[in-house]
Amino acid sequence: MPTKEIKIPTMPPVWPTVKRETPVTPRENLMLALNHEKPYWMADFYASSQVFVSSIAQDAPIERTKDTTDWFGVEYKFSEAQGSNTPMGNVLNDITEWEEKIKWPDLSQFDWASDGAQLERDESLALYMRMSNGPFERLHALEGFEQALIDLITEPEAVRDFLERLVDFKIELFNCIRDHIPLDYIMAADDWGTARAPFFS
Question: Which domain holds residue 122?
């Protein structure tokens, strides 16, 4: 039977900005909520925030509309039907190889101060950055989704050791950016479950 490729939208269209008279800026209102204080209205992360995208960091690929490679050598293949690129899991056969095969970027070699020079700041909005890929996303990007799930069960010590090293790296990466960009918050995204249940408990 012949197959037919269909286009499935991955993101809803962005709504136009609504101009409102408010007693405080969207940033001030959002920061009240994030600091466990009472906001003036229900805060909306995206409408109240400006995202900073580093031109240096390649922990996750910046370019989403073509084939590319990240800092760790993971290849991403673009699919027009999907609307983004997908990691190929081409670096590790299983997690026990991580110490031998993974080359950690030397973050001290980059000019992080120049990275912030590109930012055109809107002071009415909170400034944030996304810390992608998350730990589990990095694991399956390196070796494939099925192998990542297998390793969680069969190689828990190696997975733990890798994730501890990864988190140290991500903290170092965050500090490099934070030292030059006045971030209000970070968004750390990861996949930990399906619609039915967590991957593991």
Answer: 52-187
Quick check: is 16 in a domain?
no
- The total of structural domains in the chain comes to 1
Residue identified by tokens 């600091």 is: 35
Q: What share of the chain is helix, strand, coil (3-state, %, to 5)?
A: 35, 10, 55
Give the C-alpha distances (Å, rounded to integers) separating 80 from 3, 11, 69, 118: 16, 14, 17, 29
State the Cα–Cα distance between residues 69 and 87, nearest whole angstrom: 9
Return the closest-CA partner of residue 141 out of 75, 53, 63, 58.
Answer: 75
Closest of 170, 178, 51, 59 to residue 113, by C-alpha: 178
What pLDDT, in 10s, does the model give residues 70-101? 999 999 988 887 777 888 889 999 999 999 99
E-strand spans in the chain? 49-51, 68-69, 75-79, 84-87, 126-130, 185-187
pLDDT tens digit sequence for 99-132: 999 999 999 999 999 988 888 899 999 999 988 7
With CA atoms as reference, report the closest residue to 162 among 142, 147, 190.
142
